[in-house]
Specification:
Blueprint: E1 2-4, E2 14-17, H1 21-28, E3 35-37, H2 45-52, H3 54-62, E4 70-75, E5 82-83, E6 94-99, H4 101-109, E7 115-122, H5 123-126, E8 144-150, E9 154-158, E10 163-170, E11 173-178, H6 216-222, E12 224-228, E13 233-236, E14 241-246, E15 251-258, H7 268-278, H8 284-299, H9 323-337
Parallel strand pairs: 2-3, 5-9
Antiparallel strand pairs: 1-2, 3-13, 4-6, 4-7, 7-8, 8-15, 9-14, 10-13, 10-15, 11-12, 11-14
Helix pairs in contact: 2-3
Domain JmjC: 99-274
Protein name: Transcription factor jumonji, jmjC domain protein
Organism: Shewanella baltica (strain OS155 / ATCC BAA-1091)
Length: 339
């Protein structure tokens, strides 16, 4: 296993060559930075089919398709593949609909300049059996495995709560990644209304308007870029913002998402929404007081902080929170939110 850190290019994601799957799993276990694993899935049949031709890759995928309609986006040529809002941010710049996957393939091979994009789609529901030879065995992590495909499209910078092992199987993709702390420099759009349902940066990364978005220059200083060839795998840590560009006429990505905590603990964005409801409108002095409470109980807590409380009396302060106390807490919250 050889490591090419490329320290002289701070904007390039660390790259590891000649790595086994076992070594990869060990390296990402505690990783807090993105990592590219060159050629780690190069032996997958779909990768090999894609290297032959786009048509070979589509034929390979079609043999697993059972007819389930999938959601696809159509973008007119003037949008140059950028999946985004309309000009007034009260709608989107694409048309979305349910299509047969073979219809998508037909449109992708048509002589047109329009952009076609199929986003996150469960591989086991859409293409049962494809994952047998075209995904990693991450059983201990219980990942959600999805497939993404399209032509030359651009997906605005967004974040995901789960960790992501993104396998670039057909075509080339470029990821531009930003650390979580760069959120204030990314100019995030509306929370409850966004393409794909996930908050996105409003900055056009290919042609940023620094007059409108001056702090984005700082975000770019902190950005890391990964240019992926077929067979390359990118580890994206939880909460890292990432802009994704499909470089070729046909691109396919297979992702594995997983979280570090059990599902019964819920999604952290629910806590953020509740904070929007109950904290955001408070006077600044009160917000700062609540910030101190959050820092104490949530963000800065350490092992040993609760030694002054008997274990049996710690209740919801127990770390990690067990399922019984989690359910009690959820029930209590549900009752209070009904008032």
């Amino acid at each position: 296993m050889s490591i090419d850190v490329m320290e002289h290019k701070a904007n390039v994601v660390k790259t590891i060559d000649n790595c086994s799957t076992e070594e990869m799993l060990s390296l990402i276990q505690d990783a807090e930075q993105p990592i590219v694993f060159k050629g780690l899935c190069a032996n997958w049949p779909l990768v090999k089919a894609g290297l032959e031709s786009s048509d070979s890759a589509m034929k390979y995928l079609a043999q697993f398709y059972q007819g389930m309609p999938v959601t696809a986006y159509y973008l007119a040529p003037e949008h140059q593949g950028r999946v985004f809002y309309n000009d007034t941010l009260d709608g989107f710049n694409y048309q979305a609909g349910k299509l047969d996957l073979r219809q998508i393939f037909t449109q992708l091979t048509a002589p047109q300049a329009a952009s076609i994009y199929m986003g996150s789609t469960d591989i086991n529901q859409c293409l049962p059996g494809l994952g047998d030879d075209n995904s990693f065995n991450l059983a201990p992590l219980s990942p959600l495995t999805n497939i993404w495909l399209g032509n030359q499209t651009r997906i605005a910078a967004h974040f995901d709560f789960p960790h992501n092992l993104a396998c670039n199987v057909v075509g080339r993709r470029t990821f531009t990644l930003f650390p979580p702390e760069q959120i204030s420099n990314l100019y995030i759009g509306p929370m409850e209304f966004a393409p794909g349902g996930q908050d996105i940066s409003l900055v056009n990364i290919d042609n940023p308007d620094f007059n409108r978005f001056p702090k984005f220059a700082k975000a770019m200083e902190a950005a890391q870029v990964a240019e992926l060839e077929p067979g390359d795998v990118l580890f994206i840590p939880s909460m890292w913002w990432h802009h994704v560009r499909g470089m070729d006429d046909f691109n396919v990505l297979i992702t594995h998402w997983w979280r570090d905590t059990p599902g019964y603990l819920g999604r952290p964005n629910n806590a953020l929404l509740h904070a929007m409801l109950s904290l955001r409108s408070l006077p600044k002095a009160q917000r700062q007081a609540w910030k101190a409470l959050f820092d104490h109980y949530i963000f800065d807590h350490e092992d040993g902080d609760l030694e002054h409380i008997p274990s049996a009396a710690q209740g919801m302060l127990t770390t990690p929170l067990d399922e019984i106390n989690a359910r009690k807490l959820r029930a209590d919250l549900t009752n209070k939110l009904k008032r």
